Amino acid sequence: MRNRELGVLIIGLLCIALPAVTEWLLPLHGLEPDLGTSSMYTEQERMDAAKAVARYCDDELLRLTYLGDGLAAQETTYANDFGYEESIAFRGDFHTGWHAEGNSLPYTTYTDCTWHLGRVDGGGWRVFSSGWL
Q1: What stretch of H or E contains 124?
Q2: What CA–CA distances, in Å, run from 119 to 50, 122, 133?
Q3: DSSP of 53-108
């Protein structure tokens, strides 16, 4: 009887943990972000930043585009104000679900949102600013 209870407990924990783990591992849900080209950041660094945007946004991303090295270099001073050494920026569209937060409305599509990310010493990207133009 104990093995059966343990099995039920394990299955229950997996049902709870699997969506969170999947969200962390696959935050873009099949979206292919436009990473453009860069002489500042590798494709993997740009993809890591795109995934950080997806985790931060917590809504369905419909489009995500790297805004280029020029803006990334220009934004470094802005990133420094938040304690970051490097910066990168994306623009995109997203659709909210029932759990919309802040100024977002449920079940609404928003376009041209911009996300500014920073990092220190080649570490992970973090969104430090976001909004609309």
Answers
A1: none
A2: 13, 6, 23
A3: HHHHH-SEEEEEEE--HHHHHHTHHHHHTTT-SEEEEEEEEEE--TT--TTPPTT-
Helix (H, G, I), strand (E, B) or coil at 25: helix
Q: Which amino acid is present at 55?
A: R
Nearest to 130 by CA among 119, 120, 115: 115
Q: What is the pLDDT of residues 77-106, one digit of tens each?
A: 999 999 999 999 999 999 988 887 777 889
Q: State pTM to two decimals.
A: 0.77
- Residue 2 parent element (H or E): helix 2-25
Residue 117, Cβ density class (10 Å: 0-12 exposed, 13-18 middle, ≥19 buried): buried
Read off the pLDDT of residues 3-51 as tens digits, 9 standing for 90 and up: 666 655 566 555 454 444 444 444 688 899 999 999 999 999 999 999 9
